[in-house]
Design a protein that fits this description.
two-stranded parallel sheet; globular; about 5% strand; TIM Barrel; four-stranded mixed β-sheet; 6 strands; alpha/beta; single chain
Length: about 290
């Protein structure tokens, strides 16, 4: 959320405060462990580090979401890409006491070079592949959010994965030693990606129907939720410049949308596990010939 606000001086990010309280309340209600992915720059706030230490001690998984949250990560020069990942990795080890093994790129900015770097760094899994045609309106909407901010707009459009919605593998697979866990989609060759934001984009009744279809269709299903999805009007003092429209709204209403989504997943009799656990199951089931030494 701090990145969405532009990392202003003195900004107090609600993500690790009231917003995290809401997430954890739902986790307790449905009795599941979260997999959370930290932006390293947010961890310059000692309170955020303390909160993540507490969360990790409760059994939740902490992963890597880069240092600066650059939305063109997959297109960066290898050294800069590596630094974005390593810097957050080291911060999590030193200040939170966890060694991250999972990664997701900002804005799902996937590339072959990113996979090479993650393999070199010993990561176990990645969630950056977005094999759905919804990718194109997602990128367009992200670009429109940054009209008037030339540098951010450039980063939104600077990608190496423009064809992944058409050719990307929709099932978990190995890229050398890294398990790639694509964003889950509804059934069929043109299935639509399903994550919590689709409810804000397409309407909640349609979202719940798509969610039911995706949970049923995908053996390896996971559900991506962004802090903005549980951020509400009371979390702002009126001075912040925020390009994420869905960060506004009624907190009780937004909690209910996520609760209904989690109920759909629970009704499918799915076991609640971390992404790290899911990745290891997918690794064990991968054809032996594809597993690198």
């Amino acid at each position: 959320m701090a990145e969405a606000a532009g990392f202003p001086d003195g900004y107090v990010d609600p993500t690790y405060r009231r917003v995290m309280d809401r997430f954890l309340a739902l986790g307790r209600e449905f009795q599941f462990p979260y997999s959370m992915y930290a932006v390293g720059r947010d961890l310059e706030d000692p309170f955020a580090c303390q909160r993540l230490r507490e969360i990790a001690a409760q059994g939740h998984e902490i992963g890597n979401h880069t240092w600066n949250h650059y939305t063109d990560l997959g297109a960066l020069p290898p050294a800069e890409m590596r630094n974005e990942i390593v810097r957050t990795h080291e911060k999590l080890v030193q200040s939170v006491g966890v060694t991250p093994r999972g990664f997701i790129a900002p804005a799902w900015c996937y590339s072959a070079e990113l996979m090479r770097v993650l393999n070199e760094l010993g990561y176990r899994y990645d969630m950056s592949l977005f094999p759905s045609l919804l990718y194109y309106p997602f990128v367009i909407k992200n670009a429109l959010n940054h009209v008037g901010h030339s540098e951010k707009l450039r980063r939104v459009l600077n990608r190496r994965d423009w064809f992944q919605p058409l050719v990307g593998n929709r099932e978990p697979h190995l890229e050398n030693r890294v398990v790639v866990l694509p964003v889950p989609t509804t059934p069929g060759p043109l299935g639509i990606a399903v994550w919590h934001t689709t409810g804000f984009l397409l309407g909640w009744e349609r979202h719940f129907a798509m969610l039911r279809a995706a949970v049923k269709a995908r053996r390896f299903f996971y559900y991506v939720v962004h802090p903005a999805d549980l951020t509400c009007d009371e979390d702002f003092n009126g001075t912040e410049k925020m390009h994420l429209e869905r960060a506004r709204g009624n907190g009780e209403e937004k909690m209910n949308y996520l609760r209904q989504s989690l109920q759909v997943i629970q009704d499918a009799n799915r076991e609640w596990i971390t992404m790290g656990q899911m990745a290891e199951i997918a690794r064990a089931e991968a054809p032996p010939a594809t597993v690198a030494a």
